[in-house]
Amino acid sequence: MEDSTAVSEKLGPRQFDLDRCVHCGLCLNACPTYRELGLEMDSPRGRVYQMVQIAGGAPITPSYVEHIELCLACRGCESACPSGVQYGRMVEDARAEIESRVHRGPLARWVRRFVFMRLLQSRAALSVAGTMLYLYEICGLKALVRALGFMRLLGRLGDLEPLTPSADPPFFFSQIGRTFPPQGERRHRVAFMAGCIANISFARLNEATVRVLQRNGCEVVVPAGQGCCGALHLHSGLRGEARKLACRNIDAVLGGGFDAIITNAAGCGSTLKEYGELLDDDPEYAVKARQFAGLMRDITEFLASIELNRNMRAVNSTVTYQDSCHLAHGQKVRGAPRKLLAAIPGLKFQEMRGADLCCGSAGVYNVVQNRMSMQILGRKMETVNATGADIIATANPGCMLQLQAGVRLHGKRQRVMHVVELLDLAYKGMR
Fold first, then answer.
1. Which of 265, 303, 345, 399 is deepest in the core (most CB within 10 A)?
2. pLDDT in tens, 254-271
3. pLDDT digits over 213-265, tens only?
4. DSSP of 210-273, one letter per residue?
5. Alpha-helical regions (H) of 56-105
6. Distance CA 96, CA 90 (A)
């Protein structure tokens, strides 16, 4: 499938990014694939070495594509790197170069075109898909298929079944374009980015996000013209399409007089905050993209920065927290979610070992690299179970889906919740 990146754009990692890596190896233990495989070529240092060879004129081989695509782009190596290597940007650039130079088979091209160009960008298509998924669940077919083990007969396709999201009607699409008043005095005016798949599978999370913002004196606008943020496109090498989606969101949101632009999806937020970089060479959008990025805040980051409404009831549970990679490593936000959890009465917090190691979700990684994703998830669940927590909190819908699968496969009946859902639970029933 052809990407819509301009022909004049230089693809591949930039030389100054490649030159930053001094090959010290401090990134190795932070890399999930290296921890699993112990192979240099599947470490950040090894992948950078391969990128250098390609930049020097070496051909793009199937082996190179395999090693780059096996990377989760979790950016854990960035937190470990003493040289400030922008590895996340480099692997995205490497995938864009692969996408422009490697010919995929007809089925792969069709699937990618349908998912990235049609499904994720169409409210109607997502609503139809969500309705079909909901009917599949409520008629009992999903439970029957799981009980009888039919999916095991489908091989690799059946392995994806535990990761299938649930539909969550009524879908949040009906709320896009609305403005929600604050409870009490207005202290902030914010825009809420509702996402794409989240409107189908995490509609209740989006509603909880709006309620918590209202509880904290926010007038919440859900801008009408917004859409998919482009994060999945960018991670999959479709840089040009991601730029188009970025421009669309900037047009829809910027200029609304907002104090902040809010997202509850850490994976989306990382890309939304990097619109300035994504469009830095666009004469029309470069300045606007930087302004947009400057207003972007994760919901936990925003709430931790204001005077939080502490009129809450007790939530008597033991909670552990799984850092979303793109919140901890991409956005460098670690303390805010923990600060919010500490503010909830009755909640007992139990830190897990390796909380910032990837759970294996990584956008569509758990679909396209399912085997490795499940290995990483198994390790993660060992550390989760060791905490004895009955609730696993996180800050990203993709992580929630992955951890829910982990609970079904390896867990102890824990409940998986977004940090903002715990806040919403604490606010319920309070004046």
1. 265
2. 989 999 999 999 999 999
3. 999 999 999 999 999 999 999 988 899 999 999 999 999 999 899 999 999 99
4. HHHHHHTTEEEE--TT----SHHHHHTT-HHHHHHHHHHHHHHHTTS--SEEEES-HHHHHHHT
5. 62-69, 76-80, 87-101
6. 10
